[in-house]
Each structure stands twice: as structure tokens, then as C-alpha cells.
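Task: complex structure prediction.
Instruction: return C-alpha cells for all chains below.
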Amino acid sequence: MQTGPVDTEIISRVLKGDQAIYAELVKRYQNFVFTIALRYTPNREDAEEIAQDVFVKAYRSLADFRGDSKFSTWLYTIVTTTCITFLRKKRIPVHSLDNERVFEVADNQNSAFRANQVEQKSKAQAIQEAMRLLSVDDARIITLFYQAEQSLEEIGRILGIDPNTAKVKLHRARQRLKEKMVKHYAEIVNELTH
Amino acid sequence: MNKHQNMEERLWNYIDGAGSADDRLFIEQLIATNQGWKTKYQELLQLQDLLSNHLELDEPSMRFTQNIMESISKYHIAPAAKSYINKRIIWGIAGFFICSILALLIAGIGQMNWSAAGPTESASPINLGKLNHLDPGQFINSTYTTIFMMINVVLALVLLDRYLNYRKTKTESKSS
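Output:
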């Protein structure tokens, strides 16, 4: 639960010149921003660089935040554009939502290892690993909906798509996640089912 | 979309709290009476629980906030875009283009020979043969061109007036 001043109060204080209080906003959203960045790149250093860049960009253009959406929605829009720019600069391909075959190879390579380990895994670890097996698009939309607590309308705004399209994409992402869970973490899925 | 996918999608809508009250009531009844729907609902509910309660956020390094605060100390907040984008200039440019398009349309329609269309003549009301020996002078001297030029002159004067007014106000506020 959020404690302390609300985002808009902090923003107005920052705009009045209180730079130090911006740290409060950073602390509040750093894990969300970092997690979304990690969905784009598996490299923690890269994700941290992206996340830092996001907060610096957000600070510099804070006067442009009109308050007609949540600060988090505005911030995640910057995350999305920054991640895409970063990946383009580094020439790392962003895989399409429907390009399932791209992940199939990695999937098969790791499945035997995972099957042996599954008993020792907690639910949290299992779901975290299953998320890593998803495409960038799938993992991002699940992260925005469940972890960043954005509504379908807000996700639509962040990704520049219609809320209905966001709903369909979320539905497909959950479906694919379920498939990964059944394939690699059957024990945990069964444990939950029974 | 097959029946199975449709079932999942409707159940997800129900779990997310989307859809109308009637839809929700209908799904509730299906879950209560149909074993297939009940099993699928429980399966999806477990995934929902995993996603809502067991998906953890990753944390950046300990120095993350400090690094950002050090970085932003070198920067100033940029002024809001709306403060330096003058809407009047944008409207002025839009007005210019609209006038240009209208003038071209009027000039084009003025060149049409509406009675020329017939079985023996070309189907187009525009005399394409004329285009081969086109005299630009006839457009420049036409009434439409004069009107078009007048509108642009008026627009330019309005913009100049606004600009001079803006500069005057700015100089006055600086000196006071």
C-alpha cells in the first residue's frame, strides 16, 4: 500500500524546485520500471541502464505530465519507448507476439533440466521462470496488468493500442503462460489443481 | 474461434470482472451447472492466483536511486511543450494550407466544361487536351488567384500583427 504524499503532490513539489523529493517517486516505481525493462532484455545491467534512463527522461519532461492519467501510466509509456530505442541501438531484435517458434528452441533445451528441478521450486520461482519463457509482448502485458496494476484502458494507452486489443493480447498471453506452466511445471499446476 | 477458446475467454472476462451483469450471471450459472465449465474455471482461477500473488518484482541495485539523483542534478526540468508551441502559428499554417487547397479546387472546378460530357466526347468534364498547351498566365490573372493572394496577404498581416504585439508585450514586461 502506498504511504506518504501522493504522486501528484510530489510532482508539484519537484516542479517548484524540490529536486530531492523526486527520490520518493524513484523508490516508489523503481521495481516496476526495472521489472518491465527486464522483460525486454534478460541482461540486468542493460535493464538497469534502461530504468535509469527512464527516470532521467521522466524528470526532464515532468512539466509535460498533465495529470490526465496516473503517473505510473505516463511513466510506463516512457519505459516502453526507451526500451525499444535501447534495443534498436544495441541491435537486439524484439520478437513478435506470434513468433512462438523463436522461443521453442530455448524451451526444449531447458525442459529436461527444469523437470528435474521442479519439485524444489516454489510457486513464485516457477511462475517467474515461466514468464521468462514467454515472448517480450506476452511477458510485458502480463507484467503491466498484474504487477504494475494497470487497467486494460491504461495498457492500451501505454502500448498505443485499443483497450479491446489489449484484452485479446492479455488473454492470449495468459493462455501461453498456462501452456508453459503445464509443460514445464506440471507438478506445481497439479498441486494447485488438486 | 473454437468452443474451447471461447469458453476460456468468457471465463477470463468473468474473472477480470469485465462484461455486463447479465453475462456474469449467465457464466455463474454455467459454472454452477456444467462440470466442464466448473473445471476450466477452477483451473483459470489457480493461474489467476499465481499471477496475482506469486509473481514477484525484480529489484535493481542498491545504488539505483542514488545514481538517478546524481544524474538529474545535472539537468533542469524542460519547459512544458505547450508553453513553447504557439497554437496560433499552427492554426495559421493550417489556414494557409486549407486556403491553398480550396483555391486549387475552385480553380480546377472553374476549368471544367460540364456540358462537354457525352457519348461522342470524353467522359471527363475536364478538357485534357487543354493541358498540352496550358497557359499559366490564365491562372495567375484569374479572379480566383487574386482572391487567394488576398486571403494570404490578410493572414500574413494578422500573423505579423500578433508577432509584433507579442514582442511589444515581452519588451514591456522586461522593462517593468
